[in-house]
Write a structure and sequence with these properties.
The protein is an all-alpha fold. The radius of gyration is 29 Å and the shape is globular.
């Protein structure tokens, strides 16, 4: 039988060949997507097949989708990743078996993890015999399958933000072995459940995991600790919870940054430029032609107002005038900005929520570092 052409951008002749191949396979109870999934080549050839306007969800004579065949063949992760986009993880065969049912029966650990990561609800899907994948794990799953299933199920519920299920599963996962315990990394993402929760802003899940004994100082392959992740994600509540649970604010990542030094480095790159400050003044209502305290006009910008009849000049407002702003800054308390710098002779910008979070986290980490040193 002919093979799928290797060109990334197919010509019309190539597309016609692929459609003919698919028609032939459908006539014998299969599809080209299924055959490529069986051979572990669907991930690399999906782009070419997608150009032919074929249905990737078409089933074989037994009602099995390409996702089910990828699990059976054992080519798991890559094949399942490309199938996820087509919502095939919760499509069952004629017997009601989902891809997760097959993954449990065949002990496909990597497939179990990815299926639960993307479609955690399928853990409760019943087949024609009324059995869920959880029932199969309890009935015939060995120790390794059971522990990996529970660990993956916990990560799946964290991804969905289901704090109640996380609270229920965490003590079960804690009893697992070294490779599937509460502080063990997932096979594909290489992050622990606590690190998952920090990346995903799952604050309630973080609190449950810490309460059940998750280690707040376990780092991933890049040396990122949970508090380092939470700080970079601007999660003030998570940073407080992790520090209260004993997280080390001085722990460095592989590049030598502590959570606080990383924020300072990142914040320096995000510091507002003079141009941004000027534009913020104009967006707040300042006129492009209004002169500042040095007698210079603001940066001119296109404006519909400039094409119409000039309006009477309103009374200048102190907050829109450089000279008045300088007087305010001199007379009032010099409040430090989110980078820890005092106001200078420039128009300040109101702090965004992100900048307020940075400021709060920097203060928290500075205080925590002071206690450690």
């Amino acid at each position: 039988m002919a093979t799928v052409p290797n060109a990334l951008d197919l010509k019309e002749g190539d597309k016609a060949i692929i459609r003919q191949m698919d028609e032939h396979l459908v006539s014998i109870g299969s599809t080209i997507f299924i055959e490529e999934a069986k051979k572990g080549r669907l991930n690399e050839r999906l782009h070419r097949l997608a150009q032919c306007n074929l249905d990737p969800g078409r089933r074989d004579k037994d009602g099995r989708t390409p996702a089910i065949h990828a699990v059976i063949a054992g080519y798991g992760i890559g094949e399942l990743e490309c199938m996820w986009a087509y919502d095939l993880f919760d499509v069952a065969d004629h017997n009601g078996d989902l891809p997760l049912h097959f993954a449990v029966r065949l002990s496909r650990l990597a497939c179990i993890e990815r299926l639960l990561w993307h479609a955690v609800k399928t853990a409760l899907g019943k087949n024609a015999q009324g059995l869920t994948p959880i029932d199969l794990v309890a009935a015939c799953g060995g120790k390794e399958v059971t522990e990996r299933f529970c660990h993956a199920l916990l990560c799946g519920y964290i991804r969905k933000g289901n704090a109640e299920e996380v609270d229920r599963l965490a003590p079960i996962v804690k009893q697992g072995s070294g490779e599937c315990g509460l502080d063990s990394p997932a096979m594909y993402t290489h992050t622990t459940p606590l690190q998952h929760a920090c990346w995903l802003h799952a604050t309630a899940c973080i609190q449950h995991l810490l309460r059940h004994g998750a280690d707040p100082n376990v780092c991933d392959r890049e040396g990122l600790s949970p508090v380092r992740i939470a700080a970079s994600r601007e999660d003030v509540t998570a940073v407080k919870a992790l520090l209260a649970a004993g997280a080390d604010p001085l722990r460095k990542d592989r590049l030598g940054y502590t959570p606080r030094s990383f924020l300072l480095k990142r914040g320096e790159a995000l510091k507002p430029s003079p141009e941004r400050k000027c534009m913020a003044m104009l967006e707040a209502g300042g006129k492009p032609t209004q002169k500042d305290w040095m007698g210079s006009a603001s940066i001119p910008i296109p404006s519909s107002e400039s094409k119409s009849e000039p309006e009477p000049e309103p009374e200048p407002k102190s907050e829109r005038n450089y000279a008045a702003m300088l007087e305010i800054l001199k007379a009032g308390p010099l409040r430090k900005d989110w980078m820890g710098s005092a106001p200078s002779a420039s128009i300040p910008i109101p702090l965004s929520e992100s900048e307020r979070n940075y400021a709060a986290i920097l203060e928290i980490l500075e205080a925590a570092e002071g206690k450690r040193s």
